[in-house]
Amino acid sequence: MLTIFVSAQRKRRLIVLIIALALGSAVMSFRQQSLQSSAISDYFNQSTQAEVVLTTDPHLTSKRVSGRNFLPPSYSALATLLRFESENKTYKLRVPVRVILSDLSAKALLPGQHLSIKARVLESKEPRVAALLLANSKIQVVTSPSKWAASLARIRLGLRSASGSGDGASLIPGMVLGDTSLQSEEFKDQMRRSGLTHLV
Question: DSSP assignment of the chain, as one string?
Fold first, then answer.
């Protein structure tokens, strides 16, 4: 009798697990289709005026080379695209995007700040975003950081300073606060190859 009860319990757990996996897969598939069908995808390889709100700290990208010369440094961040204009049309939406900012003042920006940028829209290989926005001109800061964001930035800065240098030290702010700004692109790539993406 006990054996039958245990067997039934295991079957129920297995069924619940299968349903959960199927549901998770369906949700991810729906989200991916939603990103692909976003209005911004109709404007790949075109320029637009866009308003975004940052969702992560901008971090310095790895050095890029054009011919024999290094390209100017730029900053990368995740953001939510709120509005964009193209061909005398204005679209309002809320989709995740990756922004690359060549304006060096981007270093001081904080999550939650709204920016107005003139950017080129590109298709991204990053599955969690609808597009890649390349902003090569000066950015316009629409809103100042909130008191909460400013306070959190001071905490992050203190933790960065206390963590020391080196790849190992750069993991500490990431694990404690989700701050990966000290991690180089090369280090992140090595971690991804090692199956440790959740740490970067």
Answer: -HHHHHHHHHHHHHHHHHHHHHHHHHHHHHHHHHHHTSGGGGGTTEEEEEEEEE-S--EEPPP-EETTEEPPP-EEEEEEEEEEEETTEEEEEEEEEEEEE--GGGGG--TT-EEEEEEEEE--S-TT-S-EEEE-S--EE-SPPPHHHHHHHHHHHHHHHHH-SSHHHHHHHHHHH---TTS-HHHHHHHHHTT-GGG-
User: Around Cβ 10, how many Cβ atoms within 10 Å?
Assistant: 10
HSE-CB for 63 with a 13 A CA cutoff: 5
Q: For domain 39-141, which architecture applies?
A: Beta Barrel (2.40)
User: On the CB side of 92, how many CA atoms lie within 13 Å of its CA?
Assistant: 0
Q: What are the boundaries of each domain within the chain?
A: 39-141, 147-199
Q: What is the pLDDT of residues 82-140, one digit of tens each?
A: 999 987 888 999 999 999 999 988 888 989 999 999 999 999 988 889 999 999 889 99
Among 114, 169, 112, residue whose Cα is nearest residue 139: 114
Looking only at the bridges linking them, the beta strands covering 114-122 and 140-141 are antiparallel
Beta pairing partners, 133: 99, 121
